[in-house]
Amino acid sequence: MNKNNVRVRFAPSPTGSLHVGNARTALFNWLFARHHHGVLVLRIEDTDQERTLPQHTKSLLADLNWLEIDWDEGPVVGGGYGPYNQIERKEIYTKHLQGLIDKGLVYPCYCTETELEEERALLIATHQTPRYLGKCRNLNAAQRQELENQGRKPAWRFRVGSGEIVFEDLIRGRIQFLAESIGDFIIVRSNGIPAYNFAVVVDDALMEISHVIRGEDHLSNTALQLLLYQELGLKPPRFAHHSLVLGKDRAKLSKRHGAVAIGEFRRLGFLPKALINYLALCGTFVAERKEICSREEMISSFSLANMGKSGAVFDEDKLRWLNAQYIRDTADADLASLLTPLAEEVFLENTPDEKWLEAFCACFKDNFVTLQDAGEYLRIFNDTAFKLDNAARSAVGAAEAQQILGALRFILETGLATAGGALSYQVVVDSLKKATGLKGRALFLPVRAALTGAVEGIELDKLFALMTTPSMLTRLKKAMSWG
Ligand code: GLU
After folding, report:
1. 12 lines ligand 1 (CB under 6 A)
2. Which CATH topology does 86-242 take?
3. Of the options 3.55.50.30, 1.20.1050.10, 3.40.50.620, 3.40.50.80, the CATH number for the domain spanning 3-84+246-318
4. Stated pTM of the model
5. Of ligand 1's atoms, which has the minimum distance to the CA of residue 217?
6. Mean pLDDT for each 10-residue chunk of the chain (483 residues)?
7. Distance 225 CA to ligand 1 centre (A)
């Protein structure tokens, strides 16, 4: 039940992939909606036809699905306030534009990109706030006609009045702008496509959005949008502008800081739960300083009042730490399914079955920071690619080593080392000790070198738990023929 009529929206522009910054905005809206038993709308802001690509929309939806951020209205699921793609709402904007034209609140502007750019450059050069100075504001009918005769197509500009624009931000408190510093702004471009500030106001109002939660980079847009709400006679929502994600150098997080796209984190082997947990932590005050939170805990403790006002520094080490915790807490069978694609990459047609992968996870998952780390351990068990590195080669070369390996070969071939049908590490060790009179490093180093191809690495008991006898014999044969 939506007791408080909470309706929030996530409104990405499909001009690129979902990145840490906008995924965090999506998460905050999702948590707010779920906390209040409200509705999350997903709206696709696809008015920038040059940069909008269908594959971006597709990957946005896939990334949200991967993060398990679900929406109640929008693409795929539909809803009573659609269409949810702005490009399909052109008629709605045109109707509202007409209302503003009729009231004389907008005027046609014939300035070209170049003219506007020149004006902007001049204002910047003379240390003034770049804004539109109103060249087309007071044109008469004849002047307009003349410009149209030159083949110019007008955009529609909103007439900004004077005075203060004040609103109470739910995170930042009282925010104030001076209308005089804004300048008349375009609401519909000369190609008939609405500009962001206009489309967003019409949509948020018609979709009955109660709270707009978005990044602080939109604060100045909110001032423009409030003017539009007023003149369109629409009720504004409440606003909450959260801080942005910053790199370690406190600059806005971008590609140069490393991975930023959600898809990249997925490919790097991060778990969605860890990423979500990290994004919820990043820049918010966590209840009881608890760092690992379940979704339920995040939902119940979510509050805009807990959100920091200053930028949230993205700490990849913290994310990696969280990821390792989540991997450790994942059931072996679930982890095995997550690792299947990676195992297929490593073993190709010889990919071991799920049971083996499950046992593999039980042995090694404590060592993984990301799923990719499992690759390094999986490769140890790939017979096809097996070879000894230089150190291993010289370790198995010594006469004593060859004697140990010979004894191991004998134990394996005769089936002496099985206990209850399975190969027993303890029996192997005991038999080897007896056969060679050796123990410790002198005994284990050549064994490890021969079976793994390296002198350092995984514990031998784990190796014996996971490697088949034929596989060990193949490796021994290689190690011994070099000796
Ligand atoms: N499409 C806008 C963006 O991605 C939405 C901003 C808003 O939430 O109003 O930045």
Report:
1. yes
2. Rossmann fold (3.40.50)
3. 3.40.50.620
4. 0.91
5. 10
6. 81 94 97 97 94 93 98 98 96 97 97 95 94 95 96 97 96 96 95 96 98 97 97 97 92 85 96 96 72 92 90 93 97 97 94 95 97 95 94 94 95 83 87 93 95 94 93 93 52
7. 12
